[in-house]
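Hello again, I could really use a second opinion on something today. My current little project is about how a certain protein chain folds up. You're getting the sequence in one-letter code plus the fold written as tokens. Here's the protein in full, and shout if anything looks odd to you:
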Amino acid sequence: MELIKFIVDFIIHIDIHLGQIISTYGVVTYAILFGIIFMETGLVFTPFLPGDSLLFAAGAFAALNSLNVYVLWIILLLAAWIGNSSNYWIGYFFGKKIVAHPKIPIDEKHIKETKKFFDQYGGKTIILARFMPFFRTFAPFVAGVSRMSYKKFISYDLIGGFLWVTVGVMAGYFFGNIKFVKENFSLVIIGVILISLIPIIIEYVKHRRNANRKS
């Protein structure tokens, strides 16, 4: 419970926490940010870590010259790509055992919903999922479990990772230090999270409508 509270507080007040990390660890901050994005995209157990909000906040600090925007962009891009590839291979070799294990806390509903996305959008799911919390973590895992060709997977993943990191970091870089945004950073972060949830909400509404029509 305490861990959940800490993560929620970290995400909502990410500007404060990230500022403290930068002032405390300096250049090591790049490694810390790499680790967070890698785990959020690369480990099926950690979909709760900050993704969109972290990219935005890091971009905002880059605009203040607290971080080098080019180094930041490259570091996070590598983290996103390597993370997804790691998640794919985890799913490929161990996925079925992981999902079936009773002591491993993976919500099978997320796995099933992600599979539906694959059925509907095919390989494009890898790109679309980048902009959707939780789906972002489960999509490469499911791609591995379903034995999607790695060549096909990586071709979509390179595009999706590039778009996600570039949009997130550059949005923070160009808009994160506008007076209104700085004064209401926590609300903006919540807004970023809510916007990222819109595709999930749309799909849920569609699913409910289809279910009601069939009944």
